[in-house]
Amino acid sequence: MRYFHLTAILLVLTFAAGPFISPNPAQAATAAEINRDAKSALEKLYAKSPAAKKLGEKAKGILVFPGITKGGFMVGGQYGEGALLTGGKTGGYYNTVQISYGLQAGAQKYGYALFLMTDSALKWIDKSDGWEIGTGPTIVVMDTGAAGALTTTTAQSEIYAFFFSQKGLMGGIGLQGTKITKIKK
Fold this sequence. Notes:
The chain has 185 residues and is α+β, with helices and mostly antiparallel strands.
């Protein structure tokens, strides 16, 4: 009986979280909205992180996902759309999708920016038909402490990731894979 109650609770929470973690084409952002949100998010990141601003000046391209929604209980997922900015102009649109399984619960919204520092990192995005974080060029996730110590001489990786505008509560551990795919807008 105890397992029946636990299963019922899991099903209810899964269905309740569904609208927050599954993409809805009727509510998909337009190209203009993605451009506006990506540029605004990048400006806010630069205002809070001088290291991000310095990397942005040297980057070959910046892939910005301004609003990613993530949620789940045991099984979770995330979805968001963003733009690749090269030379201040939009070079393409992308989505990010993640499925995860493990000890996790909650919901959150956040954004992240991937600073593509080399031509090979920029080409990797163009030549791959959807790629998973961890299977391509090396990515360094920057936290506040690491970003404070980053200089142009210590910046040696191909891609740097900055997370920003985190809202909500999500916690846990688990297996996950994030796939980034080029989309048409």
